[in-house]
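Cross-check.
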Amino acid sequence: MAESETTQNGGAARGDGDDGNALLTTLAAQGAIDEASAARAMARLDAASTPWWLSVILALAAWLAATLVLLAVLKLKHDLTAPARVVIAVLCLGVALPVLRKSTHVFGQQFGLALSLAGQGLMAWVFVDESSVRLGFALSAALAAVLTVPRAPVLHRGLCALAAWLCLLVSLGAYLVDVHHIHPGAVSALGVLVGALALALWLRRAHWTQWWLAGGDDAGLPKAWAGASAVMSMLLAVGVASLDGVDALGFGLHPGRQESLVFFYRLYRWGAAALLLAVCAHLLRPLAPARRWPLLGVAALCAAVGWQWSGMLMVAALALAAFQACQRVWFAVLLLWLVPVVGCYYYNLSSSLLVKSISMMALGAVLLALRWALARWRAQGDAQ
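Predicted model, tokenized:
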């Protein structure tokens, strides 16, 4: 979508809805979608178009109203019993879900979001207090995942999906606050799983977009899980780099743990390299074999050279999938995220500075050679 344009009156903003309507009109004229689907999509875009400044004011008002309601219910007491917390959480979720489903305005959506997050927080409090930490966070992850299923705005579903991933990470034993309790297995295994899910959903974006244009109401579910999985994968890419550097110092390691760390880090490295090659193979399918196989060879060479920087390979795979899915904002964010990822590996003490420098030089040379080959192929195509 193009950037928003403001009117000369200085008030209303022509948001992405006008550009979306123009795009849908063009697609309908070209026969890409039928007129009925285009009309339904235009109605949704028109209903969702609101000036950004008004959206911010309404969101702040909704969160303030939800806070006042919660403070009135809780009566500012911190010694609530577990049954009382469960009752309040059920009331919050019972009010939030219908509001989120039926409201088409910013105030109602943000009010429902605040109540839903408050209810989930109270339930997580009960789960952790009445059971072990791991079981409590596992139940919290299950609750957050279930709450992504009811029809609601993408923001609510995305935050619930992200909360589910975070609770699952804590439940698996990744206690990142204390060096002595770092469990790299949870970070490595979950990093590969989350990255694979985000890539699969983004590469299938055309299918669930067609479902939305055809009148389907659940296209927000894959979109929310794709965004939440991408955010979680970005965080875990930095986490793997940071944990690798910390564990290289030998802090808090008992005999035999170093061998297990090697397995876990290799798991993430092989997983990130495999996902990058899978994305490249998927994107290169339309090309002729004479061009597809050399490009796959270059991708394999990049994966081999950057094997030490597995987080960078994972973010690069996500950026390729986001570009293919026409997610311009996500693509820009992922490119910027490469900076902290590379920075974490720069201070990683698991390899020497000489190895890092040679690897980065080799990777840069491979990418420059790839750019030269692509420019030559494009010139040959234009000449033909």
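The first strand starts at residue 5 and ends at 6. Residues 1-17, 176-180, 248-256 have pLDDT under 50 and may be disordered. Passed to J.P. for a second look.
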